[in-house]
Amino acid sequence: MKTERLEALLWERIDGTIAAGDLAELEAHIAEHPEAGSLQRQIEGLAGQLDRLRPVKPPAELKGRITTALHDVPASQRPTRGIRSTLRPAPARLRPVAWLPIAAGLLVGVTVGYLLHPGEGLSVDGSRAAGTMSVPAGDRPSSTATIDLGGTAGSLEIARTGAEAEISVDLVGDHDLGVDLEAADGDLLVTSVGTAESGQFEIAATGEHARFRTRGPSTHTLRMAMSSMATPLHLVVSLNGAVVADQWIGEAGSDLRE
Amino acid sequence: MTNENDVMLVAACLRGDRSAFDVLVERYERPLYNAAYRITGSIEDAMDATQTAFVNAYERLHTYNPDYRFFSWVYRIAVNQSLNIVGRRRDESELDGNIPAAVNNPETAYRGTERAELLENAMMQLSPEHRAVIVLKHVEGFSYTEIGELLSIPEKTVKSRLFTARQRLRSILNDLGVTP
To answer: Domain B1-101: which topology?
Structure first.
């Protein structure tokens, strides 16, 4: 056995990663070659010394320095409430839901209104996009829109239920897609971003705005929450730099704007 | 401490609760500083690397993916920051023609040093990349897989780099007349 292989096997034995066959070979070699014992002792000695290197205690002033440095981070560089991720389950809600009682009240009111005036339905305002919109029936108010991005580019769907919305992006081919979102009254919180393909994406969310950018081919799902179900959501979709959809997504009775 | 707990602190911080991040600093200051100190070999550089790692993590907190351990994420930032500092120092030394502080002859090595100090001095003669894998494996006790994730290198590279680092370390100690 060459010295280099002997050394490698000795380290593997110390690390606990040696294969059974290699271990048998190593032990047989050491038994047959007493001179290998010298290298074995050196390596085991070095491993013992390395493992005895003790953790060092950080200087007392380090914590203060870190705290000061964090305090000095400009507001523009402090973490936002947006997230960036891949293939992740929806995390726990990232903000208090103090508005839930209000939303619940509105939900009851709007549902009653819908039952009294079913023909008027739950609306989405007029779209400039070359897409179609549908309004599903259901016992909770919701609005949906499907935006056709064109023959080879794929599609984008948005489904809003109460104060929450989900956008599904299926981008086919090599295209740049931008989605800009704005909550008209109050905060917009992106609660999760998932991607089913390896496409890169960026998302930035601050206050009432969120901006999502990706390049195809890729498939993404964005989930978001607004302050209340009455909050209109402004959606602008651009494909390769050109706006293909600019519309408000809202609930029946909400103040939808062009 | 579970990663779920860390993720909750991250979420609180993203809601604007800065004190939640202070808990994470308190929790991981020591291991980050240790890695930085072992890689840079300097208290001041280790403090700089640890501080910068926490600040960078704070500023990029929205990019943290909770599918992975927060500790691994922030530790990786600290290791990379430490390697950057050592790299910059090495470039400056080359420009200045200075030799990095380390044991460079047996007489210096033996003069009043303990065995552990001798080993630490010998480690400082390794390249930063070799020193990093030694620290991660022997001081921190990470597996090959974890080291690969922390340094963004394949597991196979971790093994070969660790083998070379250990071989080089043993050679340095032998040159110093020290049998491990």
So the answer is: Rna Polymerase Sigma Factor; Chain: A (1.10.1740)
Smallest Cβ–Cβ distance between B179 and the set A42, A82, A94 belongs to A42
| CA nearest neighbour of B177 among B109, B123, B117, B112 | B109
**H or E stretch including B54?**
helix B43-59
- For tokens 């808990």, name the residue: B23
SS3 A144: strand
The minimum CA-CA distance between A79 and chain B, rounded to whole Å, is 5
pLDDT by residue (tens digit) across A88-129?
333 333 333 333 444 444 344 333 333 433 333 222 222 223
Whether the ipTM is more than 0.90: the answer is no
Distance CA A176, CA A181 (A): 17
Q: Which two tokens stand for residue B140?
A: 């921190």
Closest to A9 (Cα-Cα) out of B120, A33, A171: A33
Question: Measured between CB atoms, does A75 come within 8 Å of chain B?
Answer: no
- Residue A220 falls within a domain, yes or no? yes
* Other CB atoms within 10 Å distance of the CB of residue A128: 12
| HSE value, Cβ hemisphere, 13 Å, CA-based, for A25 | 14
Class of domain B102-180: mainly alpha
Q: What is the pLDDT of residues B56-95, one digit of tens each?
A: 999 988 888 887 889 888 998 999 899 888 888 766 665 5
pTM: 0.53
Candidate from A42, A62, A88 with C-beta closest to B47: A62
Same domain assignment for residues A37 and A117: no
| Residue A208's CATH number | 2.60.40
Please give the residue range of the domain that contains residue A32: 3-51
Q: How far is CA B5 from CA A66, A201, B70, in A?
A: 21, 27, 10
Q: Are residues A128 and A19 in the same domain?
A: no
A124 and A236 within one domain: yes
Helix axes B144-151, B70-96, angle to 10 degrees: 60
CB pair distance less than 8 Å for B34 and A56: yes
